[in-house]
Amino acid sequence: MKKKTLTCIAAVMTALSLLAGCGNESPAAPAATAEATVTEAAEEPVQEEPAKEEPAKEEPAQEEVKAEEPEASAAAKSMKDRSGNEIEVPAEVKTIVSMAPSITRVLIDLGLADQIVCSDTNTQASYGSELSADVLYMDMMAPDLEKLVALAPDIIFTSGMSSKDGVDAFATVREAGICVADIPSSTSLEAIKEDLIFIGTCIGKESEGKKLADEMQADLDKISAIAATIPEEEKKTVLFELFTPSADYPTIYTAGPGTYINEMLETAGAINIAKDEASQWPALTEEAAVGADPQVILTADMYTPDVINTILKMQGWENVTAIKNGAVYQLNADEVNQPNHHVIDALWDMAESIYPEYFGEEAALKPAA
Length: 369
Description:
Elements: H1 6-18, H2 62-65, E1 77-80, E2 86-89, E3 96-98, H3 101-109, E4 116-120, H4 121-127, E5 136-138, H5 145-151, E6 155-158, H6 171-175, E7 179-182, H7 189-202, H8 206-227, E8 237-241, E9 252-253, H9 260-267, E10 271-272, E11 283-284, H10 286-292, E12 296-299, H11 307-312, H12 321-324, E13 328-330, H13 333-337, H14 343-354, H15 356-359, H16 361-365
C-alpha cells in the first residue's frame, strides 16, 4: 500500500475542491511518473534566395496573370467551452491533448485514442495501456507549456486542475493560437451529460457524444423508477468514503451536498449521511461517522490492502449497523470519481450493493407484484 501522508491528503482535497474528477483524477490518486519525452522540433528559418535580374517582359492581360485562389478551408467553429470562454475549434481535429482522465476516457470511448498525443500522468495510471506508446505525459498541475506549444495540437482539453486562484495556466498556449477547451469537473449528473455533448461537438462527433448522454439518461430513468418502489421505511443510510481512516489519519473524507456522488446516492434511493454537511467534500471525524450509524458503507479506497476486511475490523466501529451486517462494499474508484458517463456503472454498483433485493440478482427472484 502506498502510505498516505498528510501532504497527500492536502493535495487530494485541493483537487476535490476543484473537482477535476481526479481519482486517478480519483480523489486519492497518486500521479503516475511519466518519463516519456518528445524531441522539440525547431522551426528552421526559410532561406531567401538572392534576387536574380530577369529581362523585362511584356505585362500580360489582367485575366492571364490572376493567380488561382486556393479553395477555402472549412471554417473553424466558434463556441463557448464549459467554463464560458469563447473558443475557436478547428473544423477538423486530428491531434488532441487531454489533461484529465475523465476526459481521456470519453475520447477513448469515442474511438479517438490514436489521436491523443499528450495527456496527464493520472491518465497514464488509469488508461495508459489504451493509448499509443509515444503519448507524452505531463503533471496536470504543472504542464510543460513549451512542449504543448511545440506539439501544436488541434485542441487541448483541460479540467481546471491546471489553473488555480483565477490564473489561466494555459494563457501562453492560447496566445500561440491553440484551441484550449476547459471542462471544469461537473458537480451534477446533468452537467456530465452536457460535457459529453460538448466533447463530441468539439471533435466532430456530436451525435456520438449525444448518444452517450442519452444512454446515461436511459439508465438514470431505469434506476430512478426502481428506487421509486422502495418504501420510505426501507430507505438506508449510507457512508461513502474516499479514504479508510487509520490511527495516523482518522479523518474520513466523503461526498456531501452539491456533488454528483450525493446525487447518485439519492437516485439509488439511499440517504447520504453527509447530505447536510456544510461543504461539498466534508472531513468527518470517526466519532461523527460512527455516531451516524450508517447501514451501508461504500468505499472508493484503492490503496488499503483488503480494504473491506480492514473496515470491518476497525476498532470502535463494532456497533455500527453496516459493520454488524457486513454491509461494506468497494466501488471502482475511476468510475465513481471521474465525472463522465461511467459514473452510471458505479451507480448501478451502488444501487445493487445497497438494495440487492431491488437492483441485484435477488430482485429477479422476487415474485411479480
